[in-house]
Amino acid sequence: MSKILQNILFENVKQSTNDFTKHYHDTYTIGLTYKGVLKSYNSFETYDSYEYSIRINNPGEVHSGKSKEWSHANFYPTVDLLSNLYEQIFYEKKTPFFQRHIVENKLLFLKLHNFFTAYFTKEDEMFVESLLIEALSELILSNTIYTKEYNKIFEDRKLIKNTYELINDSLDTNFTLDALASNVNLSKYHFLRLFKKEFGLTPHAFIINQRLNKANRLIQKGVSISQASVEVGFNDQSHYTRNFKKFFGYTPLTLKKNSNFIL
């Protein structure tokens, strides 16, 4: 596998009827719908991901969805990958953010399809990487709506940024509302109200989501499900598994068997 694609999750799923609750990724989500439909909810809006449409989620963007006979391919490129390519194009290190949430662009769809096909059929490494760069550069050039300073996903939302940093510093801690609210100099009432308004998740769901994101990265690197569960602060493996299925629509065992999986 090309170094540029190491530790990047791919999905190729047929006839999904799974639903997933509100969550976010610290990577991008870029996907193609081939059949069926996904009704997704994002930033207080509803979108239908239908046949031959491109679905994009930016890092830190809260979304949920309900699928019906949904056949699709997804991958989750890192902020580093997109920022490095942006720098190669424009000679400045920025993190691009894209037109939300559904994109209709036949040329881009074809380029992403060719990349996915080459990846899943294990074509030559240089060929796959060339198709990846061609597809992502088309995405950057045609759909970037704004940029942020490199690797500062929550920089424009101080409440979220400060809470994110506190949680990440000790992810396995059993946080209290008092500690989270005091960290940003707010009462518990105002912290709860403002956090959910700004981000779309409760602080509790935010913590669970961040634990899941970290556990997923550990599993992709070969850590056992049980060990990853404990390391990020879940009570046990079953607690982690229940939340994983609720948030992402499939089980962590699927991820463990093959991080770049085909269903």
Describe the structure in your own words.
Strands 1, 2, 3, 4, 5, 6, 8 and 10 form an eight-stranded mixed β-sheet that branches. The chain contains ten helices and ten strands. It is globular. The chain is 46% helix and 24% strand. The mean pLDDT is 88. By secondary structure, the protein is of the alpha+beta class. Residues 161-258 form the HTH araC/xylS-type domain. InterPro entries: AraC-bd, AraC_XylS_family_regulators, Homeodomain-like_sf, HTH-like, HTH_AraC. Keywords: DNA-binding, Transcription, Transcription regulation. This is AraC family transcriptional regulator.
Brief account:
The chain is built from ten helices and ten strands. It is of the alpha+beta class and about 260 residues long. Strands 1, 2, 3, 4, 5, 6, 8 and 10 form an eight-stranded mixed β-sheet that branches. The chain has a two-stranded antiparallel sheet with strand order 7-9.
Question: Which key phrases capture this entry?
Answer:
263 residues; alpha+beta; Jelly Rolls; Arc Repressor Mutant, subunit A; eight-stranded mixed beta sheet; AraC family transcriptional regulator; transcription regulation; transcription; DNA-binding; Homeodomain-like_sf
How does the SSE layout of this entry go?
Blueprint (H helix, E strand, L loop, with lengths): L9 E7 L2 E5 L5 E14 L2 E5 L4 E4 L5 E13 L3 H12 L3 E5 L3 E2 L2 H15 L4 H19 E6 L8 H12 L7 H7 L4 H12 L3 H18 L4 H7 L5 H12 L3 H6 L2 E3 L1
Parallel strand pairs: 1-10
Antiparallel strand pairs: 1-6, 2-6, 3-4, 3-5, 3-6, 5-8, 7-9
Helix pairs in contact: 1-3, 2-3, 5-6, 7-8
